Structure formats: C-alpha cells, structure tokens
Amino acid sequence: MYEVRIEGEMQADATAILGYRPARTCGRDLHIGARAQVRSGTAIYLGSRIGARFQTGHNVVIREECRIGDDVSVWSNTVVDYGCHIGNRVKIHSNCYIAQYTDIDDDAFLAPGVCVANDLYPGQADSARVMSGPSIGAGAQIGVNVTLLPYVRIGAGSLIGAGAVVVFDIPPGAVAFGNPASVRGQVEELAAIKERVEPVPQSASRFRRVDVATVSQLRGVESDG
C-alpha cells in the first residue's frame, strides 16, 4: 500500500483529499513538505513529491508523478496534470490548466486563465506517443489567458502579454504578445511602472493607465526644457 507522508506540520481543510488513488499505476507514495496549507476541495494524488510551504486555493487538482519545489502556490480551480516539474517559488494563479509533461522553472508566474497544451495533433496515436508540454524558463511571467502550445520554450525572464497564443520559442528577456505571439521588445526596455500609471483617489481600481504617447510627449518637453 502506498501512503501519504507529511514532513512536518500541515494545515488541510476537512474536504481536502490527500492521496487520491489514480487510475494509472503510479507506484509511489505522496510526499508533502512541512507547513503546507491545502484548502477545501483540493485533491492531491498519490505519486507526487511536493516541497515545503506548499499552498493551494480551493478546488485545486494535483495529479500523480509531479515534482514540485518549495514555496509554490497553486490557486483556486487550477489543474496540474500528471508528470509535471515545477521549481521553487513558482506561482500559478486561478483557473489555469497545466498539461502533462510541462516544465516550469524557479520563480515563474502564471496569471489567471493560462492554458497549456501538450498534444500537437490530438487524436493521432503518433502524436500521443510524443506528448510534451512547454518549458517555461526561470522568472518568466505569463499573462492572463495566455495559451502555450506543445514543445515551445519560454526563455528565462521573458514576459508574455495577455491573450497571446505562443506557437514558437520566445528568447530570454523578451516581451512577446499577439496571435501567434511574436517578440515586440525586451523586458529591460519597458517603461517604469510609475510612468505608466497614476492614482485614482477613492476608487476600488486604485490606479489607471497613463497613455504611452502622453508619456513620450512629456519626455520630449522635459528634454527641450
């Protein structure tokens, strides 16, 4: 019999399921590091190894044969399918789907609604035999509702804009968006946040965006002065 092994204190809500038995044969215990917090409706399958200080939102699914590092958070209604590798300090937001055989390196961030694919020709046996999710480099930032297709490599420190469909590899440090996503600049060239937004007093939204053209004009006036 395979077991659930908790390496220290853990906080788990009453409806969380630890050690769900998969239909596939995994042949391993479930290991969870110290100081995990697992919220209601979460199911973590047998056969995965999870590091310390792991956190889930509500209704999260972590399938078998995953390797997850320390200080990882996976928020509500997200599914991490089997055979994934997730590094340390990764944050996966709500309503994401992480397909089998996806690799996510340290410090990466996935915004709400990110969807990962791993089957180039769904329904074809040859494609099923070589299923592979993308590889997301260390510190990469993946925007809201981005779709990552099979086999792509997202370079370390890159930024993928909201709604992008990533079909081709993205180099390290690049800013990419669109469908298909293409490189539009470099992260190091982005304007500072303080130049892009201004406060909106007494509003729940707190800030609004300043028009980029206006910022450019202001810079011109300052340089002329």
Describe the model:
By secondary structure, this protein is mostly beta strands. It has two domains: 4-192, 3 Solenoid (UDP N-Acetylglucosamine Acyltransferase, domain 1); 193-225, no CATH class. Helix content is 10%, strand content 31%. The protein is built from three helices and 28 strands. It has helices spanning 125-129, 193-196, 212-224, and strands spanning 4-6, 10-12, 17-20, 30-32, 36-38, 43-45, 49-50, 55-56, 61-62, 67-68, 73-74, 79-80, 85-86, 91-92, 97-98, 103-104, 109-110, 115-116, 135-136, 141-142, 147-148, 153-154, 159-160, 165-166, 174-177, 182-186, 197-199, 207-209. The protein has an eight-stranded parallel beta sheet with strand order 1-4-7-10-13-16-19-22, with no helix packed on it. Strand 27 (197-199) and strand 28 form a beta hairpin. The model is unreliable at 214-225 (pLDDT under 50).
List the helices and strands and how they pair.
Elements: E1 4-6, E2 10-12, E3 17-20, E4 30-32, E5 36-38, E6 43-45, E7 49-50, E8 55-56, E9 61-62, E10 67-68, E11 73-74, E12 79-80, E13 85-86, E14 91-92, E15 97-98, E16 103-104, E17 109-110, E18 115-116, H1 125-129, E19 135-136, E20 141-142, E21 147-148, E22 153-154, E23 159-160, E24 165-166, E25 174-177, E26 182-186, H2 193-196, E27 197-199, E28 207-209, H3 212-224
Parallel strand pairs: 1-4, 2-5, 3-6, 4-7, 6-9, 7-10, 8-11, 9-12, 10-13, 11-14, 12-15, 13-16, 14-17, 16-19, 17-20, 18-21, 19-22, 20-23, 21-24, 23-25
Antiparallel strand pairs: 25-26, 27-28
